[in-house]
Amino acid sequence: MTSAQIERFFATLQAANPLPASELEYTSVFELLAAVLLSAQATDVGVNKATRRLFPVANTPRQILALGLEGLEAHIKTIGLYRSKARHLMQTCRILIDEHGGEVPRTREALQALPGVGRKTANVVLNVAFGEPTMAVDTHIFRVSNRTGLAPGKTPLAVEQQLLRRVPARYLAHAHHWLILHGRYVCQARKPRCWECAVAGCCDWRPKTPAP
């Protein structure tokens, strides 16, 4: 994908969706952190179902701790790996209270020091909550970046670094969401919907998938 094609790619996605947003439901930075932590190997739909039960009862670090581990597990047991995620979230809440005054830190280093928070989760929080131009490479972004030729790479970190180099600065704030949504609904894993893709003309993928 050439520089001109990359510009057209993101200009087209921006025109179709000027202010893309996460499909996770949250009303505070802590709720976002908790939801993203719970979302590993789970769908946003599944996480939202669980947090609709959890957040009205407990949506601060102190309230989560007050639930106790079993109480937290009961609210999120519909999510895969819920036992380990509950343990990580409890540990994270303790650290937030003990080391950060109950607030979510704004640095990558402090975020990644939280149990269950890896580079991808930290990037989501930095981008969505704090407006940092980060790229959280999930399976959708990894696939779209490689398939289209936008930012080829063998690992999520390699793709992330390529994206930060190749995506024009004016698009970086929202590029993460545009790529996730494009991968989730159009450039799908098993059968990319090339026949309805607005950016097919910018993409290196050959041959294009014909309409069913």
Write a structural description.
It is elongated and about 55 Å long. The chain is mainly alpha-helical and 212 residues long. The relative contact order is 0.13. 57% of the residues lie in helices and 0% in strands.
CATH hierarchy, class of the largest domain: Mainly Alpha
Instruction: Report the radius of gyration as a whole number of Å.
Output: 18 Å
Total strands: the figure is 0
Overall geometric form: elongated
Give the uncertain stretches in residue-range form.
none
Secondary-structure class = mainly alpha
| Biggest sheet descriptor | none
| Domain unit count | 2
Helix share, percent: 55-70%
Strand content: under 5%
**CATH 4th-level superfamily of the largest domain:** Hypothetical protein, domain 2
CATH architecture of the largest domain: Orthogonal Bundle
Count of individual helical segments: 10
Oligomer: single chain
Task: Summarize this entry quickly.
This protein is mostly helical and 212 residues long.
Question: What features would you highlight for this structure?
Answer:
Endonuclease Iii, domain 2, 212 residues, 10 helices, mainly alpha, 57% helix, Endonuclease III, domain 1, 0% strand, 2 domains, elongated
Question: In terms of topology, how is this protein built?
Answer:
Blueprint: H1 3-16, H2 29-38, H3 44-54, H4 61-76, H5 82-100, H6 108-112, H7 119-128, H8 139-148, H9 156-166, H10 172-185
